[in-house]
Amino acid sequence: MEIFYKPPFRKFVKKQTRSFQLVIEDEVDEITISPDMGESKKGDLTGFRVHKFSYGKQKFLIAYRFKEAAIVFFMIGTHENFYRELKSYLREAG
How confident is the model at residue 32 (pLDDT cuts 50, 70, 90)? Predict the structure, then answer.
């Protein structure tokens, strides 16, 4: 299975500490092994799945979707404004 990362995902990961980058890498590996683990979304975000995990005392969300034989990771961030930013990115990207 191929894995693709959209710019918002890559940008977020690049700004993080190395230890948090490794945690994100582990979460991505888990999703790749078991893609159905994320919560399926409805409405504007139909087709997306969101996986939640904790790092330190903070909760983070990863938005991804399947495309043929690939998983595309769109965004990662804290819960605050996460869905609004994801929808905004999708509108801009077209």
Answer: very high
Does the pLDDT value for residue 49 go beyond 80?
Answer: yes
Its domain, for residue 20, covers: 2-93
CA gap 28, 62 in Å, rounded:
9
The CATH number assigned to the domain holding 28 equals: 3.30.2310.20
Number of H helices, E strands in the chain: 3, 5
Contact 65, 9 (CB under 8 A): no
Q: CA-CA distance, 1 to 32, in Å (whole number)?
A: 8
For residue 21, CA distances in Å to 3, 4, 89 come to 16, 16, 22
Decide: helix, strand or coil at residue 40: strand
